[in-house]
Write a structure and sequence with these properties.
The protein is mainly α. The protein has one domain. It contains four helices and no strands. Helix 2 runs antiparallel to helix 4. The longest helix has 21 residues. The mean pLDDT is 92.
């Protein structure tokens, strides 16, 4: 997300968004989406911020799916 907001050239943001979305489902991701919290709590904060960044990029590039 930092690279997106700095407008770094040469990045396929649609592909990056797909990879970011898939990455959110790994390890603790499924439990986070199901229960809204995972332990340790720092993983919950990390996943919540990852969701926020992924959604921000999706909004900016017009992906509403």
């Amino acid at each position: 997300a930092d690279a997106f907001h700095r407008r770094l050239p040469g990045i396929d943001w649609e592909r990056a968004l797909t990879l970011m979305s898939k990455d959110l489902g790994r390890e603790y991701g499924e439990a986070f989406f199901q229960d809204g919290v995972v332990h340790p709590l720092t993983h919950t904060l990390d996943l919540a911020y990852g969701c926020f960044c992924t959604a921000a990029i999706a909004t900016e590039i017009g992906d509403t799916t």
